[in-house]
Amino acid sequence: MRVLIAGGGTGGHVIPALAIGRELEASYNAELLFVGTARGIENRLVPRAGYKLEMIKVGALKNVSLITRLRTLFDLPLAILHSRQLIRRFHPDVVIGVGGYASGPAMAAAILGGIPTLAFEPNYVPGFANRIVGKRVSAAAVHFEHTRQFFRNARVVGVPVRSEFFTVPPATDHPPTLLVFGGSQGAHAINQAVTAALPEVLRQIPGMHVIHQTGERDYNDVQAAYKSAGASAEVSVFIDNMPQAFARADLLVCRSGASTVAEVTAAGKPAIFIPFPRAADDHQRRNAEAIAEAGAAVLILESELTPYGLTQTIAQLMSDKGRLHAMSEKARALSHKDAAAQVAQMAADLAKSSGDREIG
Questions:
Q1: For a 10 Å CB count at each end of the chain, is N or C smaller?
Q2: What average pLDDT does the segment 59-72 reach?
């Protein structure tokens, strides 16, 4: 079986794509080809994982300047043509689009060529590329029940995450521990709000320990703030072993990208979600709303984020073990342990039905 996996841009697209690829390789002995763009994180992560990556040239259409949009529209037919050439050369049995810049042209080329297509959509609201092809794909694998309406033959499977997140035990160590992170680059607004809230939080929750991933830019300032407050803290630019950090935490403060939400629910951890407000289609807010409405998290919009409000939320949750436990149970109930296996099975079923095809 040959599978072409297209898309990328951010870790939220690429990390699940790699998990799906590994499952296809392990369970179906699939031959894989990834298609991305030079501007996305896939050009580092995919080769590092040992897979072949082909590049196409295409830019963004959402939340960009008119000039960038016009340039993308000019490049789009060429990107579809290039994708069509890659498909003709690789001859995949199925094409999986994971969203992001390269996904749209590759999926369009596959649809035009009669190749079975599988859309993978991790967010509550589909990205632009998946919305365009949603009703034309052969099938779709989604994270939320709400998202099924945007696609043909959609199935709720969740988002693939590392297996270690599913074995994270409830935090039992004392003192009470808060984990703060904002993705690999950090989140400036979260860093500022947490450090500003710190003195009052420590007054209300004496002895609280904080594990804080800052990103490169804010590391020195955040480290200095904890030292000034006399706080017990581990401050780092990047946390290599995130499942281990989850295991030590009673409560998380973080963004709400699809991969983060999937990891939080897999680990069954109570969270305060502060969505990135400039995410495409405001998808982080919609992701967070879905989890908060289920009682598994608290949502604070960045526009409403204040040191006082964050202090009160952290203090109320940290002092209510019963609520933390209930949030944990509700979060775990939303997780999907076999997401990668389900997506791979859907792809294999489509490939089985494809037979031998020629691209005209």
A1: C
A2: 52
Closest by alpha carbon to 110, among 128, 136, 132, 130? 136
- Domain 2-159+337-354 in CATH 2.60.40.10? The answer is no
Angle at 129 between CA 126 and CA 130, to 5 degrees: 45
Residue 275 phi/psi, 5-degree rounding, is -65, 145
How deeply is 172 buried, as exposed, middle or buried, from its count of CB atoms within 10 A (0-12, 13-18, 19+)? exposed
Which residue matches tokens 């501007």?
39
pTM for the full model? 0.85
Name, in order, each residue with C-beta under 8 angstroms of 280's C-beta and a sequence gap of 6 or more: 62, 63, 127, 128
- CA pair distance 261, 159, nearest whole angstrom: 9
Is the CB of residue 123 less than 8 Å from the CB of residue 38? no
pLDDT per residue over 242-280, tens digit each?
Answer: 999 999 999 999 999 999 999 999 999 999 999 999 887
Residue 231: strand pairing partners: none
Instruction: Enumerate the domain spans of the chain.
Output: 2-159+337-354, 164-333
* Reported CATH class of domain 164-333: alpha beta
**2-159+337-354 and 164-333 have identical folds:** yes
